[in-house]
Amino acid sequence: MDTLTFNAVLRLDGHGLHGFYRVVAVPPRRWDCWLAFIGFFDDGTREANSTAAPNLGSLSQVSRATLEAMDQDGDLREVRLDSHGKSHRAAELDEKSLALWDSRQRVMEPFLNHEELCKSLVSTSGIGPLVRTAVERSACGRATVYKLWRLLCTHGFTPAALIPTFDQCGAPGIPRPMNGTRLKAGSKTLRRRLGEPEPFIQRGITEEDRVKMVLHYRRLATPKDSMRLIYDKVIEAAYVTRYVEGTSGREPVMPPQGSFPNQRQFRHAIEVQTRKIERALRRTTEGHFKRNRRGLTAPAHHGVVGPGHVYAIDSTIGDVHLRSSVNPAWIIGRPIVYLIVDIWSTAIVGFYVCLSGPSWDTAKLSLFSTFSDPRLVAELWGYDYVDVLTPSPGMPFKLLCDRGEYLSAAARGTGRLLALNLSFNPAYRPDLKGMVEVLHRIAKDVQYAFIPGAINARRKELELKANAKESVMTMRDYVKFLYSVVVEYNLFADRSHRLTTEMMAANVQPNPASLWRFGFEAGLGYRKTVPFEQLASGLLQQAEMSVRRNGLFVESLRYEGAIATDQKWTEEARNFGGSLRPAYLFPGSASRIWVPDSDGLHQFDLSRTARAMPETTLDEWRDSLMYSRLENSDREYRRLCAAATNLIKRNDIVKQARARVEAAEELDAGDKLNAREARALERLHGTAPELSVHEQTNLLSPVEPEPVNPAPCGTYEETMNAVFASMNEETSNS
């Protein structure tokens, strides 16, 4: 056995000592010590009925040899007895409690002195001298001193054991169960106040009722149930003991009114016996609590070494209506906006806007906008590039995603191709990447105040949605607007809470762009460079280029490239038939595409004769094609109507011409003109007066043609020229 120490707690089971005892006095140079009984460790089942059962605080003088023997037999063990946080409530005491605590310490000051306590026990084997001293020094009685003595024995010989516990004296909010002596707690009913008899006396609740109601509450409470419905379930499960089989099924027989707890008592018992956080957990689902009500576990950048290590990506529907750049009268709907955020610096490293999705095909384009040269992206979208993030963002070590379009075979293939690590959040847990969710909200709040036609999604219930007809911005205009928002955020968002002493010493400005730059200058950043060919083949949208004899076409748009001219692609198509080649395009701009070849990736520019402008997005070009195709049926109907009308007119012309020919043939019974003579006469018809058929025959046949060896063509032309010249002369003379 270790050396006995003052105030230690022992668990004894033998030699007439059973229960917990506190070491009250260990006199020096003596073979005995004094122990105070403080309770049974088996709830008194063995000693409760014994007349010799010790009282709380009663002393026992025990020799050290007895304790050593009990220790060798295993009947003695030193334990730790906590006082339920009593010693931690000193700072919460009010003035009244502090005054009472000081008074108690003055009264029990002799008992807290181990030397005085040992001297009293050795001389008288009791604490009588110390009790008389305490009574003489204060105005309290002996009962108060013995009450405080029991507190010291129970909670320890320290001043904290004397702290008042008014919170356990039946104040509001403290359980006061009904027992054999205590009646129902609470105010009187209105009938009793008026002096009228109560037909159904409501009984109070016992400790058994509290335990029963809490157990059934925890078993039956569900998020969709109100407190009234839960009360109905608990009463039916805990207090209904009879049922009747009726024609409509089994019906419960309710106990008499007042014989079971009412709803107010049930609510009070639940609110007292359970914690607020437990009731909040039962009012909602586990997933909703973790997303919206859980406590803070760690900041978002916890575990992230520096900038570039972890990016977070997310998409949302932009709260704005857009118009087409092809025809501003067309409303093309609301865009899909992707944001990519660096977790460590909170900087927005990339974004992308499209009209379709969300899908991995569009998510890849947002990654391309982030990993590729920012000047190229600015040129494709048509905005002025501002050098904000230095160095420019590259591929991160890990990309934090949702379990949506990113959890797919296509995403896995792209990650394997580019060596990109994709990290997925649990389902329905957007709070685990709350930074990008907050930035979506910031962008929406900014645009609502400045963009005509923007939608405030959080005010839908107030019917403050903007009319789509009020929208004025095209997709490229909206991209320029978002880029200005991103630049302003990266340069001026307040990140003062992120500055460390090293950052302050380096004069780092509290904004995302400065944190990004400092992280790389301090050697904490991660940046992986990937060749443009791999980015284009892995992230850009793939299409087919149709090589035809009349040009190179992608999405019905004509493109031109130097390699096609050098290798004579159109010549091969003219002589040997057309072909298809893979091409990579950026849907945000139709100005250029990239076509792979054996010697690398080649850029093709939009032809000047193409059917769309370079600043047109491919989504808008497809919309215009579909809009034009919608009128195909109308155009076909108009063509059919015109064709039917023209067919009737042409038939009338043919009928009239046939009638004239038949009339002329009836009048002309002589020789027929040959084709050459008829053409000559037709030319003459415009300058000479109209002649009859007989006159025309006499005019053209003054000489019989030679039957054999006709004149050469030149002689005939000269003859006809002379005839036409004489005819013209006669016409002019007349």
Give a summary of the structure in a few sentences.
This protein has 26 helices and 20 strands. With 734 residues, the chain is α+β, with helices and mostly antiparallel strands. Helix 7 packs across helix 8 (227-238), helix 7 (207-220) crosses helix 9 and helix 12 (360-371) runs antiparallel to helix 19.
What does this structure look like?
The protein is α+β, with helices and mostly antiparallel strands and 734 residues long. The protein folds into seven domains: 9-79, no CATH class; 86-168; 202-283, no CATH class; 310-521, Ribonuclease H-like superfamily/Ribonuclease H (Nucleotidyltransferase, domain 5), CATH 3.30.420; 540-630, no CATH class; 635-667; 673-734, no CATH class. It is 41% helix and 15% strand. It has 26 helices and 20 strands. The protein has a six-stranded antiparallel β-barrel with strand order 15-16-17-20-19-18. A five-stranded antiparallel β-sheet has the order 4-3-2-1-5. Helix 7 (207-220) packs across helix 8, helix 7 (207-220) packs across helix 9 (263-273) and helix 12 packs antiparallel against helix 19. The longest helix is centred in the last third of the chain and has 36 residues, at 632-667.
